[in-house]
Design a protein that fits this description.
two-stranded antiparallel sheet, 157 residues, 5% strand
């Protein structure tokens, strides 16, 4: 071994360099894992928020329509009871069933409202209720600004 090896390092220095590289790899691995956890948490939070917003919007829309039809059913029953609207006996019975069903959805909360998709029990009731109410001149109308109104159309069109 010559003097330069002692000053500049010997073959054993390459082992220390490898140890330094291993330490660097460990530190890089820690940062990589930390970055992964942070990105995962951020993405998870964003996905949860998006899911909440979509579900909330669907629930609000279903609630608005459900409330609208429940109100129409009550109005038709009231007008019929006061003799101001002629409703046949079969339709009166159907209106009673709709009223009970719609009130049940209201009382059971938004979990059943959020699933108001085609083929779902609530969607079927709303569709049938809509058809029956249209027979007596009421239809669901969206007004700009996301509000709804009763459109009493005496012609039933």
């Amino acid at each position: 071994m010559d003097e330069e090896d002692d000053f500049f390092g010997s073959q054993s220095d390459s082992n220390e360099k490898t140890a330094g590289q291993r330490e660097l790899e460990v530190v890089q691995g820690r940062f990589r894992a930390s970055g992964y956890r942070e990105a995962f948490a951020s993405t998870k939070e964003q996905a949860l928020q998006e899911g909440f917003e979509k579900g909330f919007e669907r629930g609000v829309q279903a609630s608005e329509e459900l409330g609208f039809w429940l109100g129409v059913v009550v109005v038709i029953q009231k007008l019929s009871g006061d003799g101001k609207l002629s409703v046949d006996a079969g339709d009166k019975h159907q209106l009673d069933l709709f009223k009970l069903s719609l009130k049940s959805y209201v009382e059971n909360g938004s979990s059943s409202l959020a699933s108001a998709e085609p083929g779902h029990h609530l969607a079927e009731h709303l569709s049938a209720c809509s058809a029956l109410c249209a027979k007596y001149g009421f239809k669901y109308t969206k007004i700009p600004g996301n509000s709804q109104a009763i459109d009493p159309d005496p012609s039933g069109e």
